[in-house]
Specification:
- The chain is α+β, with helices and mostly antiparallel strands.
- The chain folds into 2 domains: about 60 residues; about 100 residues, H-NOX domain (Alpha-Beta Complex), CATH 3.90.1520.10.
- The protein is about 55% helix and about 15% strand.
- The chain is built from 7 helices and 4 strands, in the order ααααααββαββ.
- It is globular, with a radius of gyration of 16 Å.
- The protein starts with a helix and ends with a strand.
């Protein structure tokens, strides 16, 4: 994964805990604070160890932490230098999700070693969106659930997100808009 994910995790801990919580996470992982370069690709092992250490530090099960982190990620990215890229992806949630793969392609161009997921807008109507998530990584579905919840908030939409199950090569999610 790439360093911006690590920087977001660091900021989430710093925003919601005392400064020592982050130091304890670093100590548990053997990482140093200068190991969080935004545009650098890191092994999945480093990222999953980081998530595990944060889970242990906060006493939050990994799936719940990943949902929280997915929601946090959207706000973090929107306030980062990547905000311009995000704003180009669309002014509403359906357009944005429909352009996520294009946005990821531009990120991949600057970081060729990055392994980025794919998102496909399977179905869209005025009441709901069906989103197909594809990734070679296993176990990040709770993060995607949180991302989609964060996108609802980002676009000032009310609704809920559910995982509707596995599909060809991935997992589908349903976003239902509140009436």
């Amino acid at each position: 994964m790439y360093g911006m994910i690590h920087r977001a995790a660091r900021q989430m801990i710093r925003d919601s805990n005392d400064a020592e919580a982050w130091v304890r996470v670093l100590n548990a992982t053997g990482l140093e604070d200068d190991a969080f370069i935004s545009a650098q690709v890191y092994s999945d092992e480093v990222t999953f160890n980081l998530i595990g250490a944060i889970s242990n530090e906060l006493g939050t099960p990994v799936p719940d932490l990943l949902v929280q982190f997915g929601r946090y990620w959207v706000a973090f990215a929107a306030s980062s230098p990547y905000s311009q890229i995000l704003s180009l992806a669309g002014d509403d949630i359906a357009t944005f999700i429909g352009n996520l793969d294009r946005m990821h392609a531009s990120v991949k161009a600057s970081m060729p070693g990055a392994v980025l997921p794919s998102f496909l807008l399977v179905r869209a109507d005025e009441r709901s969106l069906q989103v197909a998530y594809r990734s070679p990584r296993q176990g990040l579905e709770p993060f995607v659930l949180g991302l989609l919840q964060g996108l609802l908030e980002h676009f000032n939409e009310k609704g809920d997100v559910t995982e509707i199950g596995p599909s060809q090569d991935g997992v589908d999610f349903l976003i239902r808009f509140a009436a």
